[in-house]
Design goal:
443 residues; alpha/beta; eight-stranded mixed sheet; three-stranded antiparallel sheet; 15 helices; globular
């Protein structure tokens, strides 16, 4: 059943650790059936309740899943390994359009901003007990949120959007709870949810964002939280417009107890307006990060939400890292104040590169999606074959398995550094990899 691997341990924690190590090393691969609790208890010479406790630990950590009489298996995407292992190694001479990174040429120089922040720090040092949020950052961020129609609420600063989402989920949910998540969606989020011991309810996505009927079904089945990407959805580029926002708010009104989390990571690189959903449910959070517009290494996101949620997040944050460096916060304020880079210019550049690729693909009969952001999603019949053929043709694309649970297969192409001269050859390579005729269109 387990090949050559032997699970070890006499305590629940040790048994769980033995399984987790094997999953992390690849000795127990995704989908592998584990022994029944009684079988493993006999093999290890322990009480079946000990094995049951070990399996419970593994379920809560997102390593295994249990399906009644069908037994326990290693999850298809175990939290121990992460989705980053579903990737393509880019050999020399192959063009990388898989990374998901912004164009470094569109990111600002950080030297002046951090020098100014350091000078301010010399004059006004931040000490223990000081406000964890830089007052000027709070003022500028709040003004931007107000302009976009995000409801008023207290502010916190976190180390990026995923940090904020994790803190909000942990503030409200417990292991075993279900979270409605976009499918296809952000791979890191699809890893995070089971790693917290939570269950995923996949919600379909079209160019307008989450499908209202899928959301209604997930919430009706007991999902306690819903996570929505407002713009530049990864990997599809979907944007929640005004009409879709009205439909989703209508669904949420029937479930006021649901925790709503909105991710606006595309702020600063998207020229389409925001249509926020917040304000319908009692518990809500809205996250806006600077990673795509100002650089992933800044690790800063602004979080707002209802008072109870923010109080819980800030209280727990105070007991851990304490706060996000106000040196970094002050540097971000300086970047915002200088208006460099121009968000409109970045949005226009990414939009132009995206539209060129979409047009070139359409001319070759290839269906693709990408209304905003820096990625294009292409439904395909066979990810492995398409990725391999494109790699052979000199293009490394991201396998869709990194971004989906039950959604049909696809591949993601990052256009952030794609040149006009490269667009035609890439589109031609994709069309060739998909094969002739109607087989090129998959939905």
């Amino acid at each position: 059943m387990l090949g050559g691997y032997r699970i070890e341990g006499r305590r629940a924690a040790d048994i769980a650790a033995s399984v987790e190590r094997a999953v992390g090393s690849g000795e127990l691969e995704p989908g592998r059936l584990l022994p029944t609790m009684r079988e493993l208890a006999v093999e290890l010479g322990v009480n079946p309740n000990t094995v049951a406790a070990a399996y419970r630990i593994l379920r809560e950590r997102g390593v295994i899943e249990t399906a009644g009489r069908r037994g326990s298996r290693v999850r298809p995407r175990p939290a121990t390994t992460g989705r980053e292992y579903v990737r393509v190694d880019v050999p020399d001479g192959v063009r990388d359009v898989a990374s998901g990174n912004p164009d470094p040429a569109l990111l600002p120089s950080l030297a002046k901003a951090f020098a100014a922040a350091a000078e301010q720090g010399d004059r006004e040092p931040v000490l223990y007990g000081d406000d964890p949020v830089e007052p000027e950052l709070a003022r500028v961020a709040r003004a931007g949120l107000d302009a976009d129609g995000v409801p008023d609420g207290p502010l916190a600063v976190t180390s990026g959007s995923l940090d904020a989402i994790e803190r909000v989920l942990a503030a409200h949910l417990r292991p075993g709870d279900t979270v409605a998540v976009e499918d296809p969606g952000w791979g890191s989020l699809l890893d995070l949810v089971p790693a917290l011991g939570l269950r995923i309810a996949p919600v379909g996505v079209d160019d307008e964002g989450p499908l209202p009927d899928d959301v209604r079904r997930a919430l009706g089945a007991g999902a306690r939280a819903l996570i929505v990407t407002d713009r530049a959805q990864n990997p599809t580029g979907a944007v929640v417009g005004a009409a879709r926002a009205r439909a989703l708010r209508s669904v949420l009104r029937d479930h006021p107890q649901v925790l709503l989390i909105e991710d606006d990571h595309g702020h600063g690189i998207v020229d389409l307006p925001l249509s926020p959903l917040a304000g319908v449910t009692r518990s809500w959070a809205f996250v806006r990060s600077v990673a795509k517009a100002y650089g992933p290494d800044l690790r800063l996101a602004v979080l707002t939400g209802d008072p109870v949620t923010l109080d819980r997040v800030r209280g727990r944050q105070r007991l851990g890292p304490g706060w996000v460096s106000r040196l970094v916060q002050r540097a971000v304020v300086r970047l915002w104040s200088d208006g460099v880079p121009d968000p409109a210019e970045a949005a226009a550049t990414y939009g132009r590169r995206r539209e060129l690729l979409l047009r070139a693909l359409a001319e070759r009969g290839v269906t693709a999606h990408g209304r905003s952001g820096m990625n294009v999603w292409i439904p395909v019949p066979d990810e492995t074959g398409v990725v391999a053929r494109l790699l052979h043709a000199g293009w490394a694309v991201a396998p869709g398995a990194r971004f989906r649970t039950s959604a049909p297969p696809g591949v993601r192409i990052t256009v952030s550094t794609l040149t006009e001269e490269e667009t035609g050859p890439l589109a031609e390579a994709v069309a060739t990899a998909l094969g002739p005729g109607p087989a090129r269109s998959y939905v």
